[in-house]
Amino acid sequence: MTSPIKLSIVFLNFNKLTETQFTSSRLQELCANRDDIEIIAVDNGSADGTAEYLRQQTGIISILLPDNGGISGYNAGFNIAKGKYLLILDDDSCPINLTSLDHALETLEQRQDIGIIAAHIQSPDGIAQWSWHLPKSTTFTRSPFFIGCGFVIRRDLFAKIGWYPEDFFLYQNEIEVSFQVRLQGYDIFYDPACIIVHRGIPSQRPGERRIFFPTRNTLWLLRRFYPQPQLSYLIFSRLVIGLVRAISFGELIPYLKAVRDGLNKPIEKTILPANIRLDCLPFWKQNSLIHQLLKRT
Fold it and tell me: N or C: which end of the chain has fewer CB within 10 A?
């Protein structure tokens, strides 16, 4: 029997009780009269009362994990989701309304070639939060990637590629998923009308994490998906870029650990075809020393 649930909204929480309360209340308000939408909240072992709050929400399916597993915590929510589509949010992001979200779902129904719709991310005061992951466009257009605090993906496609990578913890999971989605023959489109309000401020994560995980995970991505001789150039570039950033943060030890782990882990190669590498050119530019020096990213 086909599930009556069309959309599963999944958001991950960790020690931001106020943000979780706001997002939970807003989502329950938006979805109050929608029997075709379910809300799933995953808590990553919060110690500030977030888990207890979520447990009390009757309109939300709560999964309370014992420990902080980073972005892999999402996977617990994806696994139980019943919807044909998944809307992935952070604990500090929320759709501005359901009208634009419904339009995005209708697009996915009509366009079987699209695997992901990347939402437009903006602050509560309406200022766009642009990133190199998205095209700066006011029209519906192809996108190299998506931003993790707001996107819609086909559940069966996401399941086929294995959800988020369990070992990444933080950073670059969007890149891995985007590569895998394209390898499955699907495209990614940016929809400026599908608006997600992101209340987050510039990252307050410890500098150690902002050095270790991006460096290690990017090295894994490069080693897995890029062929020689491009691979050697990109690894050299990434090492230099990462070293400069580590020095600026005063985090040289985490950088060295990231390089060790990023280069030594056995990797199963899945070389991207040339056309996919071209579609994902912004990732190349972010990890190209020449592009960084010339500020042509």
Answer: N
Q: Summarize pLDDT for 266-295 with one digit per residue, the tens.
A: 999 999 999 999 999 999 999 999 999 998
CATH architecture for the domain at 7-198 = Alpha-Beta Complex (3.90)
Nearest to 211 by CA among 262, 269, 141, 280: 262
Query: Letter for the amino acid at 208?
Result: E
SS3 63: strand
Question: What confidence score (pLDDT) does residue 295 get?
Answer: 87
> Are the CB atoms for 104 and 88 separated by under 8 Å?
no
**Predicted model pTM:** 0.95
Q: Which two tokens stand for residue 225?
A: 């998906």
Q: Is 252:246 a contact under the CB 8 Å cutoff?
A: yes
Longest CA span, the chain? 57
Three-state DSSP at 172 gives coil
Centroid of chain to Cα 98: 21
Q: Angle, nearest 10°, between helix axes 173-183 and 207-225?
A: 20
The C-alpha atoms of residue 145 and residue 269 are separated, in whole angstroms, by: 21
